Amino acid sequence: MSTENLSQSPEQPSRKPRVAVVFGGRSSEHGISVVTAGAVLKAIDRTKYDVLPIGITQDGRWALTADEPDRMAITERRTPNVDELAESHEGGVVLPVDPANREVVYSEPGSVPKALGEVDVVFPVLHGPYGEDGTLQGLLELSGVPYVGSGVLASAVGQDKEYMKRVFTSFGLKVGPYVVIRPREWEQDEPAARKKIVDFAGEHGWPLFVKPARAGSSIGITKVDDLSGLDEAIAEAQRHDPKILVEAALRGREIECGVLEFEDGPRASVPAEIPPPDAHAYYDFEAKYIDSTPGLVPAPLTAQETAEVQRLAVDAFDAAPARGWSARTSSSPRTASS
Prior knowledge:
Blueprint: E1 18-24, H1 30-43, E2 50-56, E3 62-64, H2 82-85, E4 92-94, E5 103-107, E6 114-118, E7 121-124, H3 135-143, H4 152-159, H5 161-170, E8 178-181, H6 183-188, H7 190-204, E9 208-212, E10 222-224, H8 230-238, E11 244-248, E12 254-256, E13 259-262, E14 265-268, E15 272-274, H9 285-290, H10 303-319, E16 325-326
Parallel strand pairs: 1-2, 1-7
Antiparallel strand pairs: 2-3, 4-5, 5-6, 8-11, 9-10, 9-11, 12-15, 13-14, 13-16
């Protein structure tokens, strides 16, 4: 579903399009989603758009939140959460489920539901499962509410690292060596599943990166230097997703490239480079968000290298198949950490 045709009909009074920024959610990336929402709220041109911030708490309640992006930043090495921003800890926001009705309703126990007005488009900035993985996109498709970004399939593919790799390779894109351990494999024959990883290490060498297959922001990832750290790394990944992915380390540079879709097709941004984190063994959560350093924009690449990175970014965008925009595509990773 696109964000086109948001202009008013002749019968309606002129008003600014209304954007519902939806953030937070039930995943382990809740705090980073709130930080992202703060950046989006700061960037939206309020002379052109009305904004309705809606936060989803970690237990799944949709809350009306304060429109205060300065409170949505990382402070003292701590990420914010929706409960701190919610205007009420009892009331809830309900999106319409009728495609003919886009009016959002807010209700509290014992009170008459309050209409918050129509929403023209939803800007979802949820991270991880229960939002970024196609679940919210499916809800919005059923409700007939336009939204920003990719649809159900691309969102689901992009969230699941295994199937993202399978899709990419089917389109001729190269990915690093990996092995997947599914929940049933681990539950039915744990020694055989562990041996599968050990054999992979024997083929590709240490270190390995053990990560949840359907999570992001480097949460739940462990760099494993030898066999002694493997079980602890598996347990940490499984805290976030019962399906885990094990990747070989890749030596190189961390080059990022965004993609925006225009009427004539997707276009890649200028590539950026993330410098190696001095105080971290790899590009982990703290290196990304807590101790982050400014990237190099543009990345110090030759014209030929820049063109190749941009080509790969657009090819990945099309393969997904993404829509609208892709915030980050790592085209030449330093290590398999993202």
